[in-house]
Amino acid sequence: MRHIEWSKPSPGTWESDRSHQARPFGRFMDDAILEPTKTGFAEGFARAGIPLRTIEPAIVNGWYYMCVRPLGGPPEAKGAPPKPVMRLMFALHPELRRRHRRAAAFFEERVWEREIDEWFARDRHPFVDTLMSLAATDQRSLDTRALTDHMSAAAKVLRELTLWHFRGVPAGAVPIGDYLVHSEAWGLEPVEAIDAIAGFTAATTEPLANLDRVVDALRDDGALELLEGQSAHQVLDALRSHGGRVSAELATYQLIYGPRVTTDFTVFGETLNELPEVIVESLRQRATGRGRVGSPRDAAVAAENELRQRIPESNRAEWDSMLAAARRGFERREDEGDLMLRAAGIARLALLELGRRLVEDGRLDEAETTLDLTESEVVAIIDGGGPSREAAAEYTAQRRRFTTLEPPARIGPESAPPPIDIFPPAVARIVAAMFAFVSRFNPDGDPIQADGLAGHGVSRGLIEGRATVVRDASGFARFGAGDILIAPMTTPAFNVLLAAASGLVTETGGLISHAAIVSREFGIPGVVGVSDALTSIPDGALIRVNGDEGTVTILDADPNLETQQTVAKYEAAIAATIPDQPGELAQLADVEDSSRFGGKAVGLARLIRNGLAVPPGVALDVDFVQAIAAGDPVSRERLTAALDDIDGPFAVRSSATVEDSGEASFAGQFATVLDVQDGDAAMAAVRDVWYSGSSAGVEAYRRRLGLDAPIRMAVVVQQLVDADIAGVLFFDPKTSEQIVEASWGLGETVVDGTLTPDRYRIDVHGRELSVDVGDKRVELVRSNGVVSRRDVAPERAVRRCLDEDQLAALARLGDRVSSAFGDARDIEWAIVDGDVFCLQARPITRLVT
């Protein structure tokens, strides 16, 4: 290849955007997003009062670069003006004066809240409707002119979404950056502060919930065997022809999520619908894992509880408000990214179909070349003009050459952001927030602490397993449950893989990159910004990912290692740990020793003895659970006999010796298994709960709390309550008020982040002080002997689920629980046919806001 020059597009300092780009986007994407990006930044900065004209994008040798354009400054200024000069500029320059006022209003009026609310309540809906209509169109049935119009419609949506996304950057970025700036000032490391954000993003959880609906429909029809023993295409054909709810749920999933491009943000990434193996494998993983309830939101709340105690007491209320705003900011950003990926995917499929037709007509050499043409060039070729076949082929050849390049991180003079203190206070705050946010998209936003294969440890814990290198969509089909994903970067399309991964390593990205956020969302150890990960980690190697230290260690480079090699090591360890003495199995009401039965079991026993309605069950002490996990036949027989005296189905819950204390709740860290039908299923459930006590996430949380004693897992097996309404009740010791969160069906949807529950604030008598009615679009119910998620009718989804009498009953429950323990507790409750049951009562480990 001839020598490549990396020349500046125009004066200024140009930075490579490797956090979003793993390969050249191609001329179609470049044409669609460059101008909306520049315009969107300019409009967003002006509305928020940020003293930047825009962030200008440009393409250099196929790669995406960006240049910050200050308001009122030369393109290549030697440095920021002195503080007195800057203050004078803000006093005299009309636009800078306007920016100062808008920056102050942005914080005083909490402008971002209005913009985020308007996005979800109003602005996003036209985009969703258009994308759904385009996705539902059978492209191959369209004539060429109609197909060209279809492609242009998708390109139009992509441009408009890009404009909205970058116009809305301040509403999403400033609350996140402001939270990070203040958290650091109050004593928290940025990586710690970000731990409290995960779990509040519907764009991550909703695709998995939609997969679960397909699996639930199969389970209800007794048709799970349709997932096995065939090619992916045959499985999908069988599901489509099965009819009923199975076919309808699959069609809905593929309509909504199927058009999303995968592996990167370009039309060269295959869509999910083009990867049937990924869809089928995802369904199989969800089918084998149904009933387990893990909550990234609970893990974030646990981090919040710990971090909040380290914030100066006088700043805690302000920190709480900033954390809530940061969570909303991430929710919007992920949602917009999801829609942009759908628009790009719809455009991709239309371009490829047009390409196939142009190849048949002899006007192109290969169909993929349409992805290297701008929209107007494709239209021109369809109309008989445009680039020649040879010129179009050269565009493709050029993009492929550019793909092999290693773009420099910077083109132009080195630059640094201006000192924050030269700006007026409101402007200084908003500039600091933007810099704190933008800088942490890239690895160099914070120093990497270790040498060698190292980056930013963004999700705590340590895991060993097989590395699967996924450079592009072709690697998706090779990925197996429990593998550690090695990728250049991640997008929302990776979420189906990450839900089954045991760890994540990416070459690019900083503390708030998509990879960093979703590794926390799924509770897996993650390291981002490992610069040579794809070339240094052999595909199939056994590796160790340390999310605490930000390091990756190659343990065995043999590419033929099987994932089960690591699992077998743990299986052998279990077999060697059968207790010498038989464990104890007791009726739940009789247990008193928390050192053997755990705090949860002892707390439930106290409630029963005080006359509260608690589902009946048995408690297994730590030795009994260990014996079950090790396969001890005597213990298995004892548990089966005990369950014969309790009407099933059952809920199997953790009761670890460190759980539900005043210092650590471990909420969401351990497994819960619902709808356990019989003794055999109970054995498997107990073993799953036992396994969860030694997960990497649990070990990391234990170390952060400074808990030296090992975790020993006891278990509670209770009758499963078929709840009509369920939720949680929190006591606020600052006000003596209580917070009730509630939704339809079983309560796991409230704590696992699937939906937005109703939120009621009540006084000690149950009188309602305020209510925020949530969007309860799904419920977890038992139907035909199985637990499944089902959609809630739209009018019921937005209707409050608790009346005054029920709130009063919950207030009485809270009072009775407090009397039983001598202090207030956080309570999980369920209402069945008007009766209120207490499912759990934990010591308070946080203040409610």
Question: What is this structure's SSE topology?
Answer:
Blueprint lengths: L13 E3 L10 H22 L3 E9 L2 E8 L12 H10 L1 H15 L2 H25 L8 H24 L1 H17 L4 H5 L7 H19 L11 H11 L1 H14 L18 H14 L6 H13 L7 H45 L14 H8 L6 H15 L6 E2 L13 H14 L17 E4 L2 E8 L14 E4 L7 H4 L4 E4 L7 H8 L4 E3 L4 H4 L5 E5 L4 E6 L7 H12 L9 E3 L6 H16 L7 E4 L1 H8 L3 H11 L6 E5 L17 E5 L2 H14 L3 H9 L10 E5 L5 E8 L4 E8 L3 H4 L6 E5 L5 E5 L5 E6 L2 E6 L2 H4 L6 H18 L3 E8 L2 E9 L6
Parallel strand pairs: 6-7, 7-8, 8-9
Antiparallel strand pairs: 1-3, 1-4, 2-3, 5-9, 6-10, 10-11, 12-13, 13-16, 14-15, 14-16, 17-18, 17-23, 18-19, 19-20, 21-22, 23-24
Helix pairs in contact: 1-5, 2-3, 3-16, 4-5, 4-6, 4-13, 5-13, 5-14, 6-13, 6-16, 8-10, 8-11, 9-10, 9-11, 22-24, 23-24
Salient structural properties:
single chain; 849 residues; alpha+beta; seven-stranded mixed beta sheet; six-stranded antiparallel beta sheet; 28 helices; 24 strands; 45% helix; globular
